[in-house]
Specification:
Layout lengths: L18 H9 L216 H4 L19 H4 L9 E3 L5 E2 L12 E4 L7 E5 L11
Antiparallel strand pairs: 1-2, 3-4
Length: 328
Amino acid sequence: ATVPGPAIAPLASPSLASPNFAAAGAATSNPAASGPAAASMIHAGITGGCARCHNGVTAPDKPAGHIVTSAPCELCHKSTVTFAGARMNHVGISGGCATCHNGITALGKPAGHIVTNAPCETCHKSTVTFAGAQMNHAGIAGNCASCHNGVTALGKPATHIPTSAPCETCHKSTVTFAGARLDHSRVSGPCASCHNGRTAQGKAPSHFVTSLPCELCHRTVTWTSVTYRHTSPAFVDHGPALACNTCHVSNAQVVPWKFPAMKPDCAGCHSDKYRPTSHPKFESPVRVYYTVMELRNCAGACHIYTDNTQRTILTRQSGVHRAIGGGW
C-alpha cells in the first residue's frame, strides 16, 4: 500500500527540504530508507569551501592522523568522490619536513636511509620527489664506510683496490671520489696486484718487457727515478747517470752482447769505441799499439815499454777507465 504523504512530513528538515526530497518521500514504500541518513551529497559544481560542511559536525572532518595544517581542503583534495589520492601541495614549504614525514602522518625515512638526525631539507631539496637528494657532507671527516657500504650509499666499486683501510685515508674530498691518492707508506708490495693497468696505472707501453716485480726498481714515493741495481757479475755498476734504454735498446729485459767474443769484459759492449792510437805498446824499433783484445778489460793497467823486448817499462799507466767515471 502507498504511504500517505503527510505521514513523512515530520521527518523533513527545513535545511534539507526540497522538491526532490518531497517527491522521493512520496514515491518510496520504505520509511527507513528515506530522510537525511540515506542522502548522498551531490558535489557537482563545488570547487571550494569544503570546510563549511566538513567540520566534524555537519560532515566528516580531518581524521586524527591528518597532517597539521590550516590550508583549505581543496588545496590537496581534488576529488569530491573520495578523500584518497590527495597530493600535498608543498608550495612555500622549505623546512620542518619531519613534522609530517615521521612515518605516521606521512612517509618517513625508509629502513635503508643513512643514519642521521639532520633535517630532511638538508639533503632533499625537492618537494616533488625524494630522488636526487645530495648528501651534505659539511663537517664530515671520517667513518665514511658507515654509509658508503654498498647498501645505504655507494660503496667501493668492483675494480677498487683490495684494502681494509678507511675511505678517508685516500679520499680527501666529500664532493667527488676522483683524485684520491693512495697512501703507500705501509705498502711494501706486490705492486702489480694494483698496478696492473686496470685497478691502477700499470707499465707504460714504452717500458721494456720484463717479469721482474715493480718494487725491484720503483719506489712508492715516485715512479722515477729508478733505483735498480744489476746483480749479474756480467754488468758492473755504471752509476745513476746511465739510463736503462742506453743498453736496453731492444725493449727486452735481456741485453745481447754487442761483441760476444769480448764478453764478459768491457769490450763486449765497447770495443767499437776503442782507439788504438791512444794506447801505444812500445816505441822502438817502431811504434806499436795494443789491440782491443789485449785491453779488453778497460779497467786494467797498460804499460808503455821502451822497445819490442817489453823488458823495460817506460811508462806505467794505471787503469784510467772506470765504469762510473763519467766517460772515457
